[in-house]
Amino acid sequence: xxxxxxxxxxxxxxxxxxxxxxxxxxxxxxxxxxxxxxxxxxxxxxxxxxxxxxxxxxxxxxxxxxxxxxxxxxxxxxxxxxxxxxxxxxxxxxxxxxxxxxxxxxxxxxxxxxxxxxxxxxxxxxxxxxxxxxxxxxxxxxxxxxxxxxxxxxxxxxxxxxxxxxxxxxxxxxxxxxxxxxxxxxxxxxxxxxxxxxxxxxxxxxxxxxxxxxxxxxxxxxxxxxxxxxxxxxxxxxxxxxxxxxxxxxxxxxxxxxxxxxxxxxxxxxxxxxxxxxxxxxxxxxxxx
Amino acid sequence: xxxxxxxxxxxxxxxxxxxxxxxxxxxxxxxxxxxxxxxxxxxxxxxxxxxxxxxxxxxxxxxxxxxxxxxxxxxxxxxxxxxxxxxxxxxxxxxxxxxxxxxxxxxxxxxxxxxxxxxxxxxxxxxxxxxxxxxxxxxxxxxxxxxxxxxxxxxxxxxxxxxxxxxxxxxxxxxxxxxxxxxxxxxxxxxxxxxxxxxxxxxxxxxxxxxxxxxxxxxxxxxxxxxxxxxxxxxxxxxxxxxxxxxxxxxxxxxxxxxxxxxxxxxxxxxxxxxxxxxxxxxxxxxxxxxxxxxxxxxxxxxxxxxxxxxxxxxxxxxxxxxxxxxxxxxxxxx
Amino acid sequence: xxxxxxxxxxxxxxxxxxxxxxxxxxxxxxxxxxxxxxxxxxxxxxxxxxxxxxxxxxxxxxxxxxxxxxxxxxxxxxxxxxxxxxxxxxxxxxxxxxxxxxxxxxxxxxxxxxxxxxxxxxxxxxxxxxxxxxxxxxxxxxxxxxxxxxxxxxxxxxxxxxxxxxxxxxxxxxxxxxxxxxxxxxxxxxxxxxxxxxxxxxxxxxxxxxxxxxxxxxxxxxxxxxxxxxxxxxxxxxxxxxxxxxxxxxxxxxxxxxxxxxxxxxxxxxxxxxxxxxxxxxxxxxxxxxxxxxxxxxxxxxxxxxxxxxxxxxxxxxxxxxxxxxxxxxxxxxxxxxxxxxxxxxxxxxxxxxxxxxxxxxxxxxxxxxxxxxxxxxxxxxxxxxxxxxxxxxxxxxxxxxxxxxxxxxxxxxxxxxxxxxxxxxxxxxxxxxxxxxxxxxxxxxxxxxxxxxxxxxxxxxxxxxxxxxxxxxxxxxxxxxxxxxxx
Lengths: 289, 335, 488
Description:
The complex is a heterotrimer.
Chain A: E1 28-32, E2 38-43, H1 47-66, H2 69-85, H3 87-98, H4 102-122, H5 126-130, E3 132-133, E4 140-148, E5 151-155, H6 163-174, E6 178-182, H7 189-200, E7 208-211, H8 215-224, E8 230-232, H9 238-248, E9 254-256, E10 278-286
Parallel strand pairs in A: 5-6, 5-8, 6-7, 8-9
Antiparallel strand pairs in A: 1-2, 3-4, 4-10
Helix pairs in contact in A: 1-8, 2-4, 3-4, 3-7, 4-6, 8-9
Chain B: H1 4-9, H2 15-23, H3 29-33, H4 35-43, H5 50-60, H6 67-79, E1 81-84, H7 92-103, E2 117-120, H8 125-131, E3 138-142, H9 153-165, E4 170-174, H10 177-182, H11 185-199, E5 203-207, H12 210-213, H13 216-228, E6 233-235, H14 247-264, E7 269-273, H15 279-292, E8 303-307, H16 310-323
Parallel strand pairs in B: 1-2, 1-8, 2-3, 3-4, 4-5, 5-6, 6-7, 7-8
Helix pairs in contact in B: 5-14, 6-15, 6-16, 9-11, 13-14, 14-15
Chain C: E1 34-36, E2 39-41, E3 47-52, E4 59-65, H1 68-83, H2 85-88, H3 91-107, H4 109-120, H5 124-145, E5 163-167, H6 173-186, E6 190-194, H7 201-212, E7 220-222, H8 227-235, E8 241-245, H9 248-258, E9 264-268, E10 274-277, H10 283-295, E11 307-311, H11 315-326, H12 347-362, E12 366-368, E13 384-387, H13 394-397, E14 404-410, H14 413-421, E15 428-432, H15 436-445, E16 450-453, E17 472-473
Parallel strand pairs in C: 5-6, 5-8, 6-7, 8-9, 10-11, 10-15, 11-14, 13-14, 15-16
Antiparallel strand pairs in C: 1-2, 3-4, 9-17, 12-13
């Protein structure tokens, strides 16, 4: 009998500008499974990593927002395709992280994939639903279109390590924003694995950036960062959310407040998250000969 | 060489067009001599945004001209009138009556100025000339197969020669709108040059018939074309086509003469005609002159209003200003 | 022509004789109370201050500086109205109230225009032709939405938020009140409106109109006072929604106050708009647009085109045309129908404008104003153009909120976009070119909530208005304007 094969373990790193750096601080922290098993040493992102991630998100914004809506839809759909291919891996990751049953974890992964499909289909419809031509009282053509807010910082939900994450990230990138996500601090591994999917999909580097580490250390840096335009506090702890929102006032950030505790991420998302980080631009032009 | 002042005022002419004008010695001759160059020059003029232009006119229409300003504006308007009759039914008698009115619009009040001119068809110039002898009122004649302009150049020139020979001080010609809309700018310009030559000492007003040109861009181009070809005045309309004169069209013409003077040093007049019937209408035009080209154009040498019934309304309003009471229609004579 | 031997006097310009609007139609009272729960009331803990005319410094009326207990009374009245008749009223009924208000504003438009001009200092031509008609139009527009909300794209049964605290600025007092109240009422909220300290009067006349419209008590309450009144209102625990229009600094403080509560917030803040003129523009109209962009309402406009970005090849041409045009602007008595530029709203604001203009000179920009005589009394600032402005100058970066234009140049469309977007604000922008494809490309790339192409400073109740970046968030006007007052 041969020896049992020794498994090759993965190093869980940050995801910035399409690359997988370790934290510039060199720090890491231990992530355990729901039942206390050691799972991994995960990168402990620093303030400087936040800064790098914001730079990456800002740099990616102009191309991502200039891409055609059709193209963004294709890119998002490709993410769903790749996730589908790695379903089992994500089911295992969610089970490890959350202690979910096979059935529940499978349902969550399926719902996550379907969410990407849902938002992939939205990219070239959102302007038709949220935009308008406006009948002004004068000889002017006047129309309104939704445009991305820009760079959005997201504190990922803490009660749903994959589905919750997709539910907050996909709508924001569907409307052509770029994001910096602070992963669920205790259960970040499905999120990190998701970035490996993103890296091999067609999502341009920098559109989604993921940081792992203590939320109370990272979120305030994002909230106060003047080059971040929006802040989704979905997973921010209630007691800290007020301070984060207040910090966001420094540059009049658009702030989405924390999701209610126990929020069911599998329910029909509607359009509220899709339209949360868009800016309406209205253009006037005379009608004359 | 332009003065600094001219350079400053030449504002809205694009640099390329300015160089072009300078190279052409600004007599217009070199430009109008080549159809291709003329077309290129006219195409280089800045566009006119219809909505913006009309919004500006609407804003000017809100100017409130009251009391002493109104009285001054009324007298100014009277002095700028080309008192006009252009009917198939015109007779010597009609013209005679009109001339009497032109010399002394308000016989009982000699502070009322005479009008600038009487404007008639060429065959009635002799009568008008006689009736206006020894007066400051000029005789203007329409010509060049007015109002359509649809005749050969030879016929048009004969028409002009006829009017001038009969004693016309001023000739109101029409441009060939068909040729203009076809892009045959050279032909339009040649006709103006030829008419100008035939005019001799008579002043030439060039009617653009802006209602047929359809766009303000065309109005601006036609005005420049006419000025380059030697027009003394650019004039909006024959009065026979609707829309006739409007304040926005006048604005475009005023901008054109302002800019043309800046590059050429020659002040070209503007005549608005057609549909101007009330004092309120007339004052709107004067306000446009006042705020677009300024005081220098506020004289009958450089601004004219072609009208017939306007004069009586001005006289009625004038009485109201002086007496405080509204006058009745029968307080003024009907010619 | 005329006898050339006769000497002729040089032509003179037409000087417009004074054409003052009658102030009697304002029917001003010597003092006004607070409008709470459907009636004008004496303050509980408020004090009294005077509102003055910025063009003459004369006292127009005494008004109340509402105190915290007055604020509480107003919010309590609004809550009772929300829980009572207004909250349960069918949309079609609310619509009729709004239509009534629109009509009453039209009926009393001359009075409102005069009140606005006296209290604000803006030319009567503007209050008559812009502020008041637009205010009426805004109520008319949103009236029609009140019974159609289920078709507005915010779900099958969109719900109002509750009590809205609305704090508005002094630059368009009645119009801003209309922008706030009309959508809030159409969606079924009740309101506590706090007009600006220096311009309380038209909101008080509007309160009288609401009484004439028989709007149920407490649905709209008007609290006059300064920033401290606004702060107590925003901080009040029973407020569900805060809507603010004003400076970015105050907006930031309000955002901090609201953080951590369940209050919804929309902000319409400052701006430093670029008005971009390409060489191929219709220059005469562009110049009108530049003038309208920065000198409309004395430049007291958050979306004012305060940075002129002009293509270098026509820069001197455009500046010369602009100067020639500015020489025809008429500054003076705002009540004169021919006045183009009125008074600066307050001594405080004048101080800010003077300080920034002085900074412009200190930093090396060239300052120019047309010859114009400033009245002796009141607060005035001449139309001013700065050339040789660098992007780093304070006058190119900070909102001046006055009749001061900074002229910068660009060489390529890319440079124009880059310079236009190089600001922390993002409220509006202008583009002037005769090339259609360039307009659309520029409109797409400009980071601003409103892009005026070949026009500027146009407003309409059907057109969403609001900013990107530090110019705030949320939209006012159009279908989009409903969202700010619905639980979505």
